[in-house]
Amino acid sequence: MHGIRIVMKVCPTCSQWNSPKAAYKGVCGWCAYIPLCEDLELAAERDDAA
User: Fold this and answer.
1) What is the pTM of this model?
2) 29 close to 18: Cβ distance less than 8 angstroms
3) Tens digit of pLDDT for each residue in 1-50?
4) Range of the domain at 21
5) Is residue 41 in a domain?
6) What does the pLDDT read at residue 45?
7) Does a structural domain hold residue 45?
8) For residue 10, is it within any domain?
């Protein structure tokens, strides 16, 4: 999530990396998968201080 928008960098259906333009639209540019709010999973926080 980015604000109220779903940003899909990697598609959970076809496992392809999404183009930035399609990712910020919340749709897969490869298979046209559109995620539902029920499909969202939290990502682990990155620790860039190490």
Assistant:
1) 0.64
2) yes
3) 667 778 888 888 999 999 989 888 889 999 999 888 777 777 666 665 55
4) 1-33
5) no
6) 65
7) no
8) yes
